[in-house]
Amino acid sequence: MTKQEIFEQVKKKQSYLCIGLDTDVSKIPSHLRNASDPVFEFNRQIIEATKEFAVAYKPNLAFYESRGPEGLRSLERTMSIIPKDIFTIADAKRGDIGNTSAMYAETFFNHYRFDAVTVAPYMGKDSVMPFLNTKGKWVILLALTSNEGSSDFQNLVITNKSGESKSLYEEVLGVSKKWGTDENMMFVVGATHPGTLTSIRKIIPDHFLLVPGVGAQGGNLEEVSRDGLNSSCGLLVNSSRNIIYAGSDLDFAEKARQEAIKMRDEMKVLLDKYCL
Amino acid sequence: MTKQEIFEQVKKKQSYLCIGLDTDVSKIPSHLRNASDPVFEFNRQIIEATKEFAVAYKPNLAFYESRGPEGLRSLERTMSIIPKDIFTIADAKRGDIGNTSAMYAETFFNHYRFDAVTVAPYMGKDSVMPFLNTKGKWVILLALTSNEGSSDFQNLVITNKSGESKSLYEEVLGVSKKWGTDENMMFVVGATHPGTLTSIRKIIPDHFLLVPGVGAQGGNLEEVSRDGLNSSCGLLVNSSRNIIYAGSDLDFAEKARQEAIKMRDEMKVLLDKYCL
Q1: CA distance B109 to B253
Q2: pLDDT digits (tens, 9 = 90+) for B10-51
Q3: Of the partner residues B123, B127, B149, the one whose CB lies closest to the CB of residue A126
Q4: Residue B93 is a catalytic residue
Q5: What pLDDT does residue B207 have?
Q6: Where do the domains of chain A lie, and which CATH numbers do they carry?
Q7: Which of A119, A123, A155 to mutate to test the interface with B (most CBs of B within 10 A)?
Q8: Alpha helix locations (H) across B109-216?
Q9: Mean pLDDT over residues B189-211, rounded?
Q10: Model ipTM value
Q11: What is residue B158's DSSP assignment?
Q12: Rounded to a whole number, what is the distance in angstroms from the first to the last CA of chain A?
């Protein structure tokens, strides 16, 4: 999928909502537990109820892998019913030496047919490049994550090969943006670091950012949108648990729909104000 | 498995060899292709031929995941036949926010029953801690990897919160060693950085290190052993392709066995010289 196609979705839906399909079999409504594949049945109803308002779905691989091969079957089934014009992200945070990263690219782009995969930067350029070799597919590189531990290393002050001092995450952004383009790379920037988006936009004005951490983790949608939206939108704001577990009864999908509509309504206003 | 149990294996086998099961279905001997599960059949024969000389097996997850759920079935079957006294490492390089890392711990420790999993440090403490909560299980944290891209970020000079200057990988070692103990944490240190092991041993004298990069990638076993062996051995030196693809014909397992014996013979001498 191209950047322009993502932006067309945003304009059509007036939304830059990414829904995280972190589907935990122990948390889905009890009436689904007798389905032949409860996780898939849950996802199917969530997707059906929210697809008008979401521009991306992001299954988190851990939730599928923890059930072994059967869990991956649920993922295959889920991928098969996501409408083709909605962007799909494998939240997998992979990254390994070249021949191994090439295998992961095969996994997510060819086997499961995701549009994008999240990748960790620690192993450097040759661990990321194999993901950039498939036309129309995207790397979403971790830059500044939303969790508390992001301060352990990502915020360290480094001195780079040109003698410049900056945060490690700023160096990751500045170096890695040259590995691809804004047509095949995005970056993860958590919403839990107020004030950082303005300086991040100076380094990567045109790239899309995948933003976790709005809502339960404390990030503010208005602030993120004000500082992060660009002329092609440039943001995919993720919500997982707030939406998919909005209800826990027979009407769970309708509850999820209501949460998605609430996010879309806020996003519509913010797009008018800061982007379109 | 405890550190002492690993050391007992080392002493019994006179070896600190870890064999990487990076089994690529396109590279296995053609006579296996008609087996009901060719990857498992390949692994079964490799394990049978090398288990006397290996103290650890390390399946690389990418090679199994790339075939979808079926690939993970091959992994389940492989795990079921590795002798229980041999240490097993899921080379998965995971790491995510807390509830997600907990799911990955469930995946590798409970579902597939690995003893250890490799984890990337970029997301910090709360992304690693969930892996340290299972008694007898291990995190093997990436510190200084063997690939060319390791110099992109791991070698950057950082200034930490105490005002000390050091390489990022040294900071990762110094900070993360406090998250666990030498009974539940190991570190990945590539063999392709001559001279670094001596300074790394000053930071973590007692931890086991998982060392990739000997052989094809240019690392030298004698040098790694001289600088890295400690009084409990403290090294697991990995070899993947050199061993498992030593032959490509009917006698592939025998060829793998010969390569493993060659490594064991070298290691026996080095253990005498630098450890036992």
Answers
A1: 28
A2: 999 999 999 999 999 999 999 999 999 999 999 999 999 999
A3: B149
A4: yes
A5: 98
A6: 3-274 (3.20.20.70)
A7: A123
A8: 125-128, 150-153, 168-176, 196-203
A9: 96
A10: 0.97
A11: E
A12: 21
